[in-house]
Specification:
About 55% of the residues lie in helices and about 5% in strands. It has about 750 residues and is α+β, with helices and mostly antiparallel strands. The strands form two sheets. The protein has a seven-stranded antiparallel beta sheet. Strands 8-9 form a two-stranded antiparallel ribbon. β3 and β4 form a beta hairpin.
Length: about 750
C-alpha cells in the first residue's frame, strides 16, 4: 500500500532515506503527493520511516506537515497507518476518517479505514468502507481485504467471490490463492480447496501455512498419505513451525497413531511452551497410552496457566482411571461411579465453574502405590498376544470407505477386541442359564481352557443397568462391553449412557446432533445423505406437517406443495417453509405391532450469515427411553431364543435379528457419543457368537447408521443392507481357539496394554 520503490542512478546512495525520498519526489511517484517537491519529499520520507518500522519518526514528520497544512490527505494516511501498525486502531480510524472528510473519493482512505474497522471487529462498517473503496477504484487489494472480512464473518461464499475477483486482477498472488482454499474448504468443497492450495504453494514454495492447509485439506478428505506428505513439506520450510506440529499431531491422533502424535505434540510444546493446543494434546496422548502420572502433571500445569481450561475434565477422568487401573472391570462402571453432573458438564463442554458442578468433589491425586502402565510395543502375556492377533481380523471391519473418515488404527484395535469379547460373552449366554452375581472361577481365577468359551463373566456391580441391582444378563450388559473398551481407548471423547447423566439433563432431553449442513458448509462426512434426508423430510411434511421451534405442529398450505416437491437445497426449503422446523421420522415397533415411535428429528434452522443447520437430532427423553429400551429388550429376547434352538439358529433369521438389534440401537441413540460404532461392533459380535464371520466393510460411500435412521422399519433397513452383508457370512470356529478376553483383559491396565500393542 504505502511501500516506496526508487530507482538508482550513477553513484547515488540509495540506502540514505533522504536520498530515496528525494528521488521519489523528483519522479513524482508519491501517493497523494501535492506536486510541491519539498512537501512531497517530506511525505515520501515519512512514508519510508513508517514502512521501515520507525513509527515515531514518521508520525513526527506527518504531525509537522499537518501543522502547516491541516488538509494534507497524505499526512493523515501516513499517520493513520503508523497508528494502526502500533495497535492504536481508534486513532488510526480517526485519521482515515479525516482524510475521507477532506476527499470523499480517496479510495486509499476508505480502504485503510475498512481494514482498521475490521481489526476493531466493526465488520459491517468495514464491509461498507471496502465496498466504497472498490466503487471508487477497484483493485486487487480492495477485493482481497473485503474477502478477508467476509471470511472472518464466516460468510465464505461472499469471501470466495471477492477472492476470485481479486485473482482476476492479480492471478499470481499466493496469499489470495490460500484464502480461496480456506473458503472452499469451509464450504465443504475439499477438492477445490486442494487445487487452490496447490496453486498457492506453486507460486511460493516457502509458504508454510499453505503447505499446512493443503495437508489439512487432505486430512479432512480422509487421505492420510497425502496429508503426511504435505505436512512434511511445511516442516521442511520451517522446522520450528509449532502450529504445523500441532496439526500433524492431530492427523496422527485421528489415525490412532498415538506415539507419533505424542512426538509431534511434545515437539510443538517444546518449541513454544505457551502453545496450549500442543500442551493439551500431549497430555491426552500420555493419558491414552496409560502414562497417567505424566498426563496428570501435564493437565495440572495447563490448569495452573488457565484455571478454567477444559482439560479439567480429562484430568479428572485420568485420575479416576488411575484409581481403577487394577480393578476388575467386570465389577466397575464409570457411569455409576462418576458424578452425573460432572459427566453432563464434560459432554456439553461447560465452563469448569458452571453451577451444575459447584458441588463436585475432585478425584484423589496420583498414588505412588499404583504404577503407570509399562509402555511397550508388545506384551509379556502370550494370551493377550494371541487375542490381539485374532482381533486384527475384525478391527478394519468398522472402517468406513467414505470421504472424510481416516483409518484409525487404535479404534480398529478397540473394535476387534470388543467383537471378540462381546462374542464370547454372548456365546456363553446362549449356552447356559445365567446366574446372579459373578460366577465361580477355576483354579487361580482362570475358568480353565475347556470352559473358557462357555463362561459368562458377569457381575451386576459392573453393569450400567438398574443401578447394579440383580438382573438377567441383558442387551445393555452386552453393549456395556463395547462402551468400556471405547472409554479406555479414547480419553478425549465423553462416552456415557445418557440416562445416567444428570437427571435434569435427561429430563430435558439430552440431544445428539449430526449435521449434514452447518452454516454454509456441506459437511464432507454426512452431506452425501442430504438428498435422501431431504426426500424423507418432504414426504413427512406432506403426510403430517412439521413442528416449529416451539414444538407447535403446522400443515403446509396446498398451494405450496408443488414448490416443496421441487426444493433441492436448504435455501429452497426455507423459501417454502419460511421458518425453522423439524420433522420426526417414524420408527415402527416390533415389540408392539402397529405402534409407531419417534425415530429421529430432521431439523432445518437458519444460521447467519446466509447459512443453515440441517441436522439429525435424537432427543434422549425418559418416555422415549422407556419405549426404545422395550424394543431392545424384545429383540434381545428373540436373539436369545433363536440362538438357543435345539437344531441351532437359522442363519438368515439370526442375521435379520442382529441387524434389527442394530436398527433399533442406532435409532435409540443411548450414548452421548459412539452409538453407531458400538452398534456396528455389536452386530459383528452377535454373528461371531453363533460361529459366523462377516468379512465385509460397508461399500464405498455407505454409512450403515444413516440407512437405519432414515428407514421406518427394520425390514426396510435389512432389505437394503443384506445385499452386501449376507454373501459375506462365512462359518468359523475362531472363538474356539481364542483366550477369553474378559479374563485376560480384565483390568483397565490389561485393556490398555492390549490397545498399545503395535
Amino acid at each position: 500500500g504505502l511501500t516506496l520503490t526508487a530507482a538508482s542512478k550513477g553513484n547515488v546512495n540509495v540506502q540514505d532515506p533522504a536520498t530515496i525520498a528525494a528521488l521519489a519526489a523528483a519522479q513524482n511517484i508519491i501517493t497523494h503527493g501535492v506536486g510541491n517537491a519539498s512537501v512531497d519529499e517530506q511525505i515520501a520520507l515519512g512514508y519510508l520511516q513508517v514502512n521501515t518500522g520507525k513509527y515515531k519518526q514518521g508520525m513526527a514528520m506527518f504531525n509537522s506537515l499537518l501543522e502547516r497544512d491541516p488538509k494534507l490527505i497524505a499526512a493523515y494516511l501516513g499517520r493513520g497507518t503508523a497508528q494502526a501498525l502500533q495497535g492504536n486502531l481508534a486513532a488510526a480510524s480517526k485519521d482515515f476518517t479525516s482524510a475521507i472528510d477532506i476527499d470523499a473519493n480517496c479510495s486509499d482512505a476508505w480502504k485503510r479505514r475498512g481494514q482498521t474497522r475490521a481489526a476493531l471487529n466493526f465488520d459491517a462498517d468495514a464491509i461498507k468502507d471496502l465496498t466504497r473503496a472498490s466503487q471508487i477504484s477497484a483493485d486487487h487489494e480492495c477485493f482481497h481485504q473485503r474477502g478477508i472480512v467476509y471470511h472472518k464473518m464466516h460468510d465464505y461464499r461472499k469471501g470466495l467471490g471477492d477472492f476470485r475477483k481479486a485473482l482476476d486482477m492479480m492471478p499470481t498472488n499466493h496469499v489470495t490463492w490460500n484464502f480461496v482454499g480456506l473458503c472452499e474448504n469451509s464450504l465443504g468443497k475439499t477438492r477445490e480447496a486442494i487445487i487452490a492450495y496447490e496453486r498457492a504453494t506453486s507460486l511460493d514454495p516457502t509458504f508454510k501455512e499453505a503447505w499446512a492447509n493443503l495437508a489439512q485439506a487432505y486430512r479432512d478428505y480422509g487421505d492420510r498419505p497425502n496429508a503426511e506428505k504435505f505436512f512434511e513439506r511445511a516442516m521442511k520450510v520451517d522446522a520450528t513451525y509449532t502450529h504445523g506440529y500441532h496439526l500433524r499431531g492431530l492427523l496422527y491422533y485421528g489415525c490412532g497413531e498415538i506415539r507419533l502424535a505424542l512426538a509431534d505434540f511434545a515437539r510443538g510444546h517444546q518449541l513454544d511452551p505457551n502453545d496450549r493446543n500442543c500442551h493439551l494434546m500431549k497430555a491426552v496422548c500420555l493419558h491414552s497410552l496409560g502414562q497417567l502420572t505424566q498426563a496428570v502433571a501435564a493437565y495440572t500445569s495447563l490448569l495452573q496457566v488457565d484455571p478454567q481450561h477444559q482439560c479439567f475434565y480429562q484430568r479428572e477422568l485420568c485420575l479416576y482411571l488411575h484409581k481403577q487401573l487394577d480393578k476388575d472391570q467386570m465389577g466397575c462402571n464409570q457411569d455409576f461411579e462418576l458424578d452425573p453432573y460432572f459427566k453432563e458438564a464434560y459432554c456439553k463442554r461447560h465452563p469448569t465453574n458452571h453451577p451444575r458442578i459447584c458441588n463436585y468433589v475432585t478425584q484423589p491425586g496420583i498414588s505412588t502405590k499404583i504404577p503407570d502402565i509399562v509402555l511397550s510395543d508388545t506384551t509379556t502375556s502370550q494370551s493377550i498376544r494371541k487375542i490381539v492377533e485374532l482381533s486384527r481380523r475384525f478391527g478394519p471391519l468398522i472402517q468406513l470407505n467414505t470421504k472424510g473418515f481416516l483409518s484409525n488404527l487404535r479404534q480398529h484395535r478397540m473394535c476387534g477386541l470388543s467383537i471378540l469379547h462381546m462374542a464370547q460373552q454372548a456365546k456363553a449366554f446362549w449356552k447356559q442359564a445365567p446366574r446372579k452375581g459373578p460366577q465361580k472361577k477355576g483354579k487361580g481365577g482362570d475358568p480353565g481352557a475347556q470352559a473358557e468359551g462357555e463362561y459368562l463373566y458377569f457381575d451386576q456391580k459392573g453393569s450400567s443397568k438398574d443401578n447394579g441391582k440383580a438382573h438377567e444378563y441383558s442387551w445393555r450388559d452386552f453393549i456395556d462391553i463395547a462402551v468400556k473398551w471405547r472409554q479406555v481407548s479414547e480419553p478425549n471423547d465423553p462416552v456415557f449412557w445418557i440416562d445416567l447423566l444428570a437427571p435434569e439433563a435427561f429430563a430435558e432431553g439430552f440431544g445428539l446432533q449430526t449435521p449434514m449442513v452447518t452454516g454454509q458448509m456441506n459437511v464432507i462426512r454426512y452431506f452425501p445423505y442430504f438428498d435422501r434426508a431431504l426426500e424423507v423430510v418432504k414426504k413427512l411434511i406432506i403426510d403430517s406437517g412439521a413442528c416449529n421451534v416451539h414444538d407447535q405442529r403446522f400443515m403446509l398450505p396446498r398451494t405450496k406443495l408443488e414448490q416443496l416437491q421441487e426444493a433441492k437445497n436448504c435455501h429452497d426449503m426455507w423459501d417454502v417453509m419460511q421458518q425453522g422446523f423439524y420433522v420426526e421420522t417414524p420408527c415402527h415397533s416390533l415389540a408392539r405391532p402397529g405402534k409407531s415411535m419417534a425415530g429421529t428429528r430432521i431439523t432445518l434452522l437458519q444460521k447467519q450469515p446466509d447459512g443453515f443447520d440441517f441436522t439429525i437430532r435424537t432427543p434422549g427423553t425418559p418416555p422415549r427411553w422407556v419405549e426404545m429400551d422395550a424394543e431392545m429388550t424384545h429383540v434381545w429376547r428373540l436373539l436369545q431364543n433363536e440362538a438357543r434352538r435345539k437344531e441351532g439358529p437359522d442363519l438368515d433369521r439370526f442375521t435379520e435379528l442382529a441387524l434389527t438389534f442394530y436398527f433399533y440401537y442406532v435409532n435409540f441413540g443411548p450414548l452421548s457419543r459412539g452409538t453407531a460404532a458400538t452398534g456396528y461392533i455389536a452386530f459383528f459380535a452377535l454373528m461371531l457368537s453363533i460361529g459366523y464371520d462377516v468379512q465385509c466393510s460397508p461399500p464405498e460411500g455407505t454409512q450403515v447408521d444413516w440407512p437405519a435412521i432414515l428407514s421406518p422399519t427394520p425390514a426396510d433397513f435389512v432389505g437394503e443392507v443384506k445385499k452386501w452383508i449376507y454373501p459375506a457370512r462365512v462359518k468359523t470356529d475362531l472363538l474356539d481357539g481364542c483366550p477369553h478376553v474378559a479374563h485376560h483383559c480384565a483390568t483397565a491396565r490389561k485393556m490398555t496394554e492390549a490397545l498399545n500393542v503395535v
